[in-house]
């Protein structure tokens, strides 16, 4: 049977969160040598290097990040199953902030499912730009936050953040849209305080691609509507593809795009036990 050992996965998560084998071993009550041996066996089982070790600690490889996302979901499900059998329901008010780009066509259904499965959890949700979600979380105005970052070389996730999912970025427009020949690219975006707006404009400028921002929408839904109307082109994550939209067909002459990464923000000091349990639950509900 093909499977991973859950205790080895637990050690992987502990080491990644702790930033080193020594710190991670202490979290799961192992010696450093025992934790290293578990990681060695896990990498052998995976057939890939999962962690890069250096003077500054450990850093997950791309394969390690993918396995970490699975491991967190499996561990959270195991914890929730135990609590369910012990009759310990999740109950309390949860203030959640989510970037507007996160699975826009599915988010409402995901939250509705959460409410049905955990009726004693009172959700208060705000959907905003990533920078606003991060600022609200830092001020203590929300308990948990989901933000997006463009994966660029040299940028690493903050310590304690949990990778929920990665998605390709695409140049999108109305189905069948054709860019007018000889004219600047008609770019649609969220306001210029949006990180994806800044990235797209900066990328086009660096590649000397003539462009003009013809519309700034207040949210992703408005941006999708403007795209469907044929007003231009936008840089969006793949799950923002909506009916009436399509990725631009090659060759379109626009720069290649990286992926977007969605993270659950790192816990603040003194996080309540209820919020910690909700965090693990959200990892299973929102990742994919």
UniProtKB/TrEMBL annotation:
SUPFAM superfamilies: Periplasmic binding protein-like II (SSF53850), Winged helix' DNA-binding domain (SSF46785)
One Gene Ontology molecular-function label: DNA binding
Family annotation (InterPro entries): LTTR, LysR_HTH_N, LysR_subst-bd, WH-like_DNA-bd_sf, WH_DNA-bd_sf
Family as reported in the entry's similarity comment: Belongs to the LysR transcriptional regulatory family.
Top-level taxon of origin: Bacteria
Record's keyword terms, sorted: DNA-binding, Transcription, Transcription regulation
Protein name, entry field: LysR family transcriptional regulator
UniProt-listed PROSITE patterns: HTH_LYSR
Pfam family, one: LysR_substrate
Lineage: Bacteria, Pseudomonadati, Pseudomonadota, Betaproteobacteria, Burkholderiales
Keyword Transcription: yes
Secretion signal, residue range per the UniProt entry: none
Coiled-coil stretches noted in the UniProt entry, renumbered to this chain: none
Keyword Signal: no
Gene3D superfamilies: Periplasmic binding protein-like II, Winged helix-like DNA-binding domain superfamily/Winged helix DNA-binding domain
UniProt domain HTH lysR-type: residue ranges: 4-61
């Amino acid at each position: 049977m093909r499977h991973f050992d859950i205790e080895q996965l637990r050690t992987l998560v502990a080491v990644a969160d702790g930033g080193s084998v020594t710190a991670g071993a202490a979290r799961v009550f192992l010696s450093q040598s025992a934790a290293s041996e578990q990681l060695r066996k896990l990498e052998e089982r995976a057939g890939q290097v999962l962690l890069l070790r250096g003077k500054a600690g450990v850093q997950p490889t791309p394969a390690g990040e993918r396995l970490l996302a699975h491991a967190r979901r499996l561990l959270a499900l195991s914890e929730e199953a135990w609590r369910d059998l012990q009759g310990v329901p999740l109950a309390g008010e949860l203030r959640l902030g989510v970037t507007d780009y996160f699975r826009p066509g599915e988010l409402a259904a995901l939250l509705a499912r959460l409410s049905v499965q955990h009726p004693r959890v009172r959700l208060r949700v705000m959907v905003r730009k990533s920078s606003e979600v991060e600022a609200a979380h830092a001020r203590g105005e929300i308990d948990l936050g989901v933000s997006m970052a463009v994966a660029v070389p040299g940028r690493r996730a903050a310590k304690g953040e949990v990778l929920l999912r990665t998605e390709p970025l695409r140049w999108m427009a109305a189905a069948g849209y054709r860019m007018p020949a000889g004219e600047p690219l008609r770019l649609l975006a969220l306001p210029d305080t949006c990180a994806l707006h800044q990235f797209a404009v900066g990328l086009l400028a660096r590649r000397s691609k003539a462009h003009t921002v013809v519309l700034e929408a207040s949210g992703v839904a408005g941006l999708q509507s403007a795209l469907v109307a044929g007003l231009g082109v936008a840089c969006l994550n793949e799950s923002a593809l909506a009916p009436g939209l399509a990725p631009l067909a090659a060759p379109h002459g626009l720069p290649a795009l990286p992926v977007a990464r969605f993270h659950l923000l790192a816990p603040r000091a003194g996080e309540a036990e209820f919020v910690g349990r909700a965090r693990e639950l959200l990892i299973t509900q929102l990742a994919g």
